Fold:
Amino acid sequence: MPLSRTRTALNRQAIYNKEMASGLILGIESSCDETAAAVVRSGSEVLSNVVASQIATHALYGGVVPELASREHLTNIVPVVRTAVAEAGITLADLDAVAVTEGPGLAGALLVGITYAKALAYGLGTPLIAVNHLEGHIHAVLMEAKETLSLASGVPVLALVVSGGHTHLYLAEERDGLWNYRNVGRTIDDAAGEAYDKSAKLLGLGYPGGPLMDFLASHGDPNAVEFKLGGIKPKLHRDGASRGGEFDFSFSGIKTAVLRYTELHSMRERAAARHNALMQVEGNRREVALALCDRETLDLIASFQKAVAGYLVKQTMRAAEEFGAGSIIVSGGVAANRALRERMSAEAATRHLQIAFPSLALATDNAAMIAAAAWPKFAAGLFASDDLNAVPQLRLG
Amino acid sequence: MLVKRFKTRSVEGTLALGPNMAEKLMPTPKLILLRGELGAGKTTLVKGIAQALTGVDPEEVTSPTFTLVHEYAGPKVHLYHLDLYRLEKEEELAALGIDEMASQPDALVLVEWGDKFQSVIQRADGQIMMRANDLDEREIFLEIL
Structure:
């Protein structure tokens, strides 16, 4: 690894030369559970995309580790970056820049990625680029859909970022090569993915059980139980002007409604038995879980899914109309949900809106999206300074 | 020891309990267990307390289940809202820095699902227990050691 310790952040910008550039950016992501690294060329061509849980760290370090603690990130970061560079078929010296998530996330977890990225960029003499995790999720879709979405200037894209930790609506628009964002809606309590996971837990499906709920939903009657979502009261600002909030989300109520339903229909004991039986299952639990679910439970799951997907679609479409969006992108872990994809696509089609979802590998937390989001910043020379720090509550727009 | 009981009939009622509850939780530093089932209203109660202590808009106070920790800085109190639901091991707890948080002089640390860990129970200066009764009212029981 060539080391040039005398370069400062300032002349790093000066040495950057577009003609000489390889376009290769190493992305590093460690904001929450996953330690991830990826190499992406020119913001769109994914050469490698490695997430710690996918490689054999558990074989190396004994036992599958939940990547919650910064200690796990510390253990993972070196092998993950090495694997990403090797799988891309490049050497570190080929990199044009190192990009890293600066927030939002857990301070200790973020710091592992940031410290490593800083040291690596310093050692290589390449620029360091800071990326907002939520912006990354938006670029996870943009990087794949740039060709299919005809992005006209002046017509914003509406992005729904929906996962276990986020439910946010952003207007995104490219101006002079850089992307600008405006947050127009967000959850005021639980994230959509969290409502899925917690409801799954109430039904004895384990945690996190969101994807399992999605699978089971197709086996029940979605019209069996009526759930109501929304009903957030518009609020006035101190100066009397409306602060908006009409595109916000609330998922706390449906979680409570599922709890009440299970109590009212004496489903708790069955859920506990189901939980114990599922705990014994190694590997794929889908078919076993299906066999363990009675009609009443399947109907509840199907109804829950219909209500949540419908609510996400409704709020997104209302916002798209209000802000004149020409296309919609859906990203984050819940973007993998079948009902959400189907209903969002159908509704977009009737409204003549373009729509794009990420591929499965880019839906959940990954580093390719960080490298992709860094590309426009790289081209614009928007680099992070040497004192880049973790910003746990970082906002976008 | 301080023991108080409250009952609220709506989300608004639980939010409005914030200032009263905040006052009872002074002085800092304190680590308080927040107990109650899913849907008991724990996040709603924290919204009210956070607004009273730090002036934050209650809508900005969201569930920390996925993110583990949310912080709200006020003029006199630094509020930490933790959810240990997803944690399984003591090592993970240590990595989260719960000791560092709770030892700051202006810290009020509210911990959901803290009773999963013996070390957190021992550290706690008190607890708030919440439950929804058959009338969909919220019963709130505050106990400070």
